[in-house]
Amino acid sequence: MSGQYEARLAELGLTLPEAAAPIASYVPVVEAGGLAHISGQLPFDQGHVLVGRCNGEDDLDEGQKAAKLCALMVIAQLKQALGSLDRVERIVKLGVFVNSGPDFTAQPQVANGASDLMESVFGDAGKHARAAVGVAALPRGAMVEVDAVVAVRPS
């Protein structure tokens, strides 16, 4: 079914943001060997990066929101690079980096914001392997950053 993933986004009431331009010396997506490698994406909310640090349970909801926003940006980058989300075969792996304090250990729960979105949009093809890592700082003070590896169909 052509356009199924775009239709699913619409059903979920989600709009893809404009794919963000790189902020350093890299490209957003590299396609090689049937895989698209998506550079780390930040959580843009109405054009601004969602900043902050997860320090406790009170930050879990905001962290999940940030992870979801990152996942939307991953999808936006995919659409721009591939021309169509119809080329997505499977989300293979997500790397989720959570700006967190030393006592915060709920990185996997924060990462669920991105993982759940991928499954909601891509169905079984959205189920993936994942790493969820706490870090001391992220670019622009972002709360979360997500990168991805995606299996893609030939164009």
What is this structure, in a nutshell?
The chain is 30% helix and 28% strand. By secondary structure, it is of the alpha+beta class.
- Mass-distribution shape: globular
Radius of gyration: 15 Å
Count of extended strands: 7
> How many helix segments?
3
Q: How much β-strand is present in the residues?
A: 25-35%
Cα end-to-end separation: 16 Å
Oligomer: single chain
Estimate the mean pLDDT confidence.
96
The strand line-up of the biggest sheet is 1-2-7-5-6
Secondary-structure-derived class: alpha+beta
Order of helices and strands: HEEEEHEHEE
How helical, in percent, are the residues?
A: 25-40%
Sheet of most strands? 5 strands, mixed
Uncertain spans = none
Characterization of the model:
This protein is an alpha+beta fold and 155 residues long. It is 30% helix and 28% strand. It is built from 3 helices and 7 strands. Strands 1-2-7-5-6 form a 5-stranded mixed sheet. Helix 2 (60-82) packs across helix 3 (107-122). The longest helix is centred in the middle third of the chain and has 23 residues, at 60-82. It is globular, with a radius of gyration of 15 Å. The model has no long low-confidence stretch (mean pLDDT 96).
List the helices and strands and how they pair.
Layout: H1 4-11, E1 29-32, E2 35-41, E3 44-45, E4 48-49, H2 60-82, E5 88-99, H3 107-122, E6 129-135, E7 144-152
Parallel strand pairs: 5-6
Antiparallel strand pairs: 1-2, 2-7, 3-4, 5-7
